[in-house]
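INTERNAL AUDIT FORM
Audit reference: QA-55
Scope: verify that the stored structure record matches its stored sequence.
Auditor: D.O.
Record contents follow.
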Amino acid sequence: MDDRGILGGMHPFVKLILLALVMVGSTLVVFVVGMLIAMPFFGPDMLRQLGDTGPENIQLLRYVQLLSHLGLFVGASLVFAYLVGGRPLRYLGSRGHPGMTALVLGALVMIAALPMVNFLVLINEQLSLPESLRNLEEWMRRTEEAAEAATRLFLDVSTWQGLLFNIFLIALIPAIGEEFVFRGIVQKLFRQWTGNVHLGVIIAAVLFSAMHLQFFGFLPRLLLGLLLGYMFVYTRNIWVPVFAHFFNNAAAVIIYFLAHNDHIDFDVEGVGAGRFAPLLFLFSLLMVLLLLRGMWRVSRHRHLLKDPP
């Protein structure tokens, strides 16, 4: 058992409430401290500028995005893991180096899943709510468009320094923070609560997708959440889903940078689309299942060698 912290004996439902409170508190603390540190650099009118999402305000927006991820996910997960587990990284699932084979397989799963992801994007975009919920659907679409516009604002860089910072901001920090929270904590708590490993993976994946508040991208993110969840189950090491998550986001950032600056002509969203999309979906599914099975066998062999009965 990893629940050796001062609050480790609580029911999983109470721990989920504690997690929510810690996330709110950590976000507030990191935001306030971060704003005080940044005030000499951005000026006394910094808070007024937060509502301006124009390109001229991009540096402040990037900084706020960094603070939000550090507070809401990274900081909150470490504080919660300390309160409940005593040893934060061990509680979150850090069991040393997972092995290069598992990491490579995690990256290959992300690549193999791309046709499935793009197929689900097409399906998700065609879904609509009943006429009685038309106002809700319009709000959802506006929210989706605003989120997409903000993402493109961050991604539109033309220098290699900008690319490296985007990899840090959009790939590395979210991969660590979101995996710590959703796989290292939420998935574990629902597994303890329900006594079912699959329910733990599914519920964590649903919450992971819903958290992004991009409703017309819910299904593809749900799929990614499921894949990352089973990577954690099979390897028992949080760094495998962290690396796979990072690889997925970093690849998207790099491809967008190269295409946006006319270094390559490649449409990643077109992979798996077209007339053969259903067949490519099935092939993608088969490859993902084979890779996950290979990951399970490799990790099982490592655990048997390290932890003999």
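Auditor finding: record pair retrieved intact. The chain has a mean pLDDT of 88.
Action required: none
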